[in-house]
Amino acid sequence: MRHSTALLGAVLAGAALGTAGTTAPARADVPGFGVRLTAPATFKASGNTKTLTAVVTSDQRDCRKVRFTLIVRGGSVPLDRIRVTRFEESGEFPTRLAVDGDTATLVDEQLDPGTLCRGRTVTGRWQVGFTGREGGEVRFEVQAFDAQNTLLSAAGAGTEVAGQVATSSPTPSRTTATPEPSASADEEATETEAPADTEPATDPTPTQTAAALSPASEDSNLLGPGLIVGGVFFFLGLMLLLRLRARTREARRQAETMPTGFYTMP
Questions:
Q1: Cβ within 8 Å of residue 241, ≥6 positions away
Q2: Domain coordinates of the chain in residue numbers?
Q3: In this structure, which topology does domain 33-162 adopt according to CATH?
Q4: What is the residue range of the signal peptide feature (predicted)?
């Protein structure tokens, strides 16, 4: 049965190899081998996947092929929320899945492409992710077997899944406090712009206040042009009056100096 990258409460389909179903950390049956497991300290629920890495080392002269087994103990995190994919450089690596309660075991269907020798390591990698919103703790254990299903070495590591924090609702202080100063400002503006012979409104609503301020603003905008036009007409009338007065004086002066028809004899 191929591992479909998800631990979804699958049932055991075929026996696991060797001690793949062991739930307790196993010690190496062959001296000189070791496993170093590196796991992220924390995961984020519904976040990006992270890589779990196991490196097998050897002090033996002879070289061996390795088969990995990954044991996942969900604990406070249900297995159906855990996503695991075994992969190599060439892509996804096939595995078999067995589930027993809150423990899932993934066994490589094939031997790892690498060869374990003295001074040469073999590395196994798994992509791990978590769905949902709740957090919890999860423990991983990696066991390394040879081609004869002999347990070489094992190592374990724990990690924590951080839950998603619920988004807090916006505080009502800003929404309730904002209209108060504008309402008082509207009241002051209404009292200032109201005519002297009109009784000011006691509690105007913002709509009424805005409507009351609109005519006042229009009058103030027309006041300047009205004064200019009135001044122009005033000066035109004054100039016309002065000109008529000057013409009247000139006509009077000419009338006084006109000849009377009598001349003085030489």
A1: none
A2: 33-162
A3: Immunoglobulin-like (2.60.40)
A4: 1-28
Can you count the helices (H) and strands (E) in the chain?
3, 12
What does 22-36 look like in DSSP terms, one character per residue?
--SPPPPSSTTEEEE
Q: How many degrees, rounded to 5, is the angle at CA 142 between CA 136 and CA 144?
A: 175
Q: Would you say 98 and 104 are in contact if contact means Cβ atoms under 8 Å apart?
A: yes
The band of 222, judged by pLDDT with boundaries at 50, 70 and 90, is low
Instruction: Report the run of H or E that residue 223 belongs to, with start and end.
Output: helix 206-256
The pLDDT of residue 116 is 97
d(CA 98, CA 207): 70
Strand 91-92, strand 95-100: pairing: unpaired
Mean pLDDT of the chain: 75
**pLDDT per residue as tens digits for the range 229-249:** 888 888 888 888 888 888 888
Residue 71 CA: distances (Å) to CA of 50, 144, 195, 218: 17, 11, 86, 81
Among residues 114, 62, 121, 63, which one has the least CA distance to residue 88? Answer: 114
Distance CA 112, CA 107 (A): 11
Residue 180 has pLDDT above 80, yes or no: no
- Separation between Cα atoms, residue 9 and residue 77, nearest integer Å: 13
State how far the Cα of 154 lies from the Cα of 136, in Å rounded to an integer: 24
Measured between alpha carbons, how far is 80 from 78 in angstroms, rounded to an integer?
5
Going by pLDDT thresholds of 50, 70 and 90, the confidence category of residue 75 is: confident
